[in-house]
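Deliverable D5.2: sample structural annotation.
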Amino acid sequence: MRPFHHHEERRRTFYRSHRRQRSIKPSDPSENQAALEKKYGLPPGAYKLMWKAQSGLCAICDDILTRPHVDHDHATGKVRGLLCHRCNPGIGLLKESVRNLRRAETYLEANA
């Protein structure tokens, strides 16, 4: 069995090399812009326009978008906006249902 420090050193090396590969900040709207536009069927420049229209903030909670997610309706494919990495899965966990969202709101208000 290898000593513990061996595994710790491998972990540090991995994260150092991973950081070097990511020269663009995750919050940069141009990162992967073309790939996202192709994936969601957006016209060229639409992602950057959404980013600017939302001032780089999540469309739900107004947090700064450090890891933006393109929110879209899974049934129609229609893009709704950019969300943070917390709000986007939140909508998914509520099954993209306005009814579930309203019930969650009622629940939170009743138990505040």
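Annotation notes: The CA atoms of residues 1 and 58 lie 47 Å apart. Residues 25-110 form a domain with the His-Me finger endonuclease fold fold (CATH 3.40.1800.10).
The annotation will be released with the project's public dataset once the embargo ends.
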